[in-house]
Give the backbone structure.
Amino acid sequence: MLYFKCEKCGACCQIITGITDLEEYDLGNGRCRMLGTDNLCTIYGSRPGVCKQDYVYKHFFPYIDSELFVKQMKRICLRLREERIKGACDERL
C-alpha cells in the first residue's frame, strides 16, 4: 500500500470527538490527550488502529483502490491543516 507523508501538524489529532475508538483519549474538546506540545503522538508506536493509514484502509475502505484512498487522505489532511491555520488566524482577530 502507498502512504502519504504526515506533516506532523496535529490537525487530525484535534478533531477526535465522536470517534468511538478514541473516546478514552478525548480531552473533552476534541483534542487527543496523547498529542504532545510538539504535535507528535506520545504513544506513536502503540497508537490505536484508527490512527494508522493501513488499518483505516483495510478495515473501512478495502473496496477503494489504494492509490485513490491515499489521494483522498492527502486532500483531507490538507483541508484540516488549512482550517486549523484559518482558525488560529481568526482567534488572533
User: Anything to note?
Assistant: The two ends are 43 Å apart (CA to CA). The first helix runs from residue 53 to 60.
